[in-house]
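so i finally got all the pieces together for this one. its two components total, 605 residues if u count the protein bits. some of the lines might not be protein, just check the labels. i wanna see the whole assembly predicted at once instead of chain by chain like last time, that was a mess tbh
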Amino acid sequence: MRILLLRVIAILVTFIGLYMLSQFVTYQMDPYYFQVLIECGVYIILAVSLNLINGITGQFSIGHAGFFAVGAYVGAAWTMIWQPMVVGRYSFLQMGTLHGDILNLLIALVLGMISAGMAGFVVGLPSLRLRGDYLAIATLGFAEVIYVLLLNINSVGGARGLNGIPTLISSGNLALFWIFLFVIISIVLSRNIMQSVRGLTWLSVREDEIAADAMGVDTTKVKVTAFVIGSALAGAAGVLYAHFLTGISPDIFSMNTSILITTMVVLGGSGSVTGSVIAATVLIVLPEMLRFLKNDRMVIYSVLLIVMMLTRPQGIFGTKEIGFPKWRRKQPKTEGRSA
Amino acid sequence: MEAQTAEDGGAIRIMSVLEIRDVTKKFGGLAAVSGLNLIIEPGELLGLIGPNGAGKTTVFNLITGVYKPSSGDVIFQGRRLNGLRSCRIASLGICRTFQNIRLFKQLNVLDNVRIATHLHTKANLLDSILRNTRLLNNDRELTEFSLMILRSLKLEDVSDQRSSDLPYGLQRRLEIARAIATKPKLLLLDEPAAGMNPQEKVELMELVRCVRRDFHLTILLIEHDMRVVMGICERIYVLDYGELIAEGKPEVIRKDPQVLSAYLGE
């Protein structure tokens, strides 16, 4: 009962805090910095969700932009194509008012997450047969297929992409609220999974699949579940990003993006949620900070990446975490002594 | 139908824990195991010995579903295991250790054991994500159970160390702890004493005996060091070139001419 109460308070505080922050930041912050902040949030969701697949379950996937794209395009398809078709019959779907916008955003989110999750299921299936590099290539192939499909489907604009998507998430100055709500959801979700006994079985698949199998871990189920949850979160990031940018084109979801997200996970330390969050922030902020270098910017950026990987090949955080593992380790120990 | 196959074995053997019936496993032209018959009664501590390459580990792989038998049946408590996946067999109550240690290296000792308790978790993935009271209570129970196992295997002092940092002997012991945490009915130990000095071997065998008593286990033990097995097993099967060459009490096995020639040569 006490736990439930604490939970409710924590959730309320999070909501109100995020709402106030969102209002404050939108008025006070320079639009350029605001844009960078939002981008950070989107990439944190992507990195943390890929970390579920790559870092925690150990299935090396490098096609995360594909799921990102599925979410973005399906979400945008709702607001641009499907919603206008049905709005005549269901007038409560009308956009323009705050609650109308929120309702449509939620529908877009649900659709985007479900379709990205289904894509994750489809990609997760070969992961039962493929290991390591082979799986990596298969996922990369999936992302490329999505990319080429988007380039060639005219109803979503082909290479020009979809433009004029309503900025649903900015309605009521809530952009920051929505993005960081999902940042928090993905972090808490990863943390909770990693801390439970069931989540430990995900780690066991990464550590030693044969031993995991011998301990009764259904490795097939674990892998597919990780893929579905990870890609559904990437889909959510896509929906939010599309409704923030107002214009999306296949180029946003090219192989470069996939590589960038993978780099974030590896740089932060595979398996570390904290690492993913920090690496995502660094890799988004760094190129912006290096803008004064003009043309040499990306050269320096790449050199910095190489230096970081050389000095800490296990990633910034290795598999460590800030904030939660200490608490977890202490708890059972003290209990053990008292017993 | 399954019950029927169990009864076919004769009235006395209905309740045997594991029965291997005429199992053959071929890799290409080579029969790693051929025509093997083996029965494990409840509560037994059974030894499976043989020179290197005799097919002992193959037998384990056949029981745990890593390999499928080319012919013959593996029956566990009246249920045919042929074709079941490893994880399914483990959840039915057969758990094993590995000859070449396979711990979850980056995780600490306690987590290694906690993973193995997942078969008894009543909380589903949604509970895990929501971290509700069902999960918290359940996880606490499982953690306490894991700590209990660590205590009885004298591993509690290292419970928060990374398992790959443990000394070799403790890693072996942790493998056994992890296997016990699945609450198996049948425990398969694959050369648990490999690479240990004689003193450590004696200690380990003592430990195996305690574990079997405390957790009411039936144990099948692979070992190629005869002396180790002789002291502890009640019954011994001897394999050579995939075939059963002797079966019986340690005293009998010790004197069996075929066994001696397999081990020492003609």
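Residues 43-258 of chain A form one domain.
The CA atoms of residues 272 and 319 of chain A lie 5 Å apart.
anyway lmk what u think
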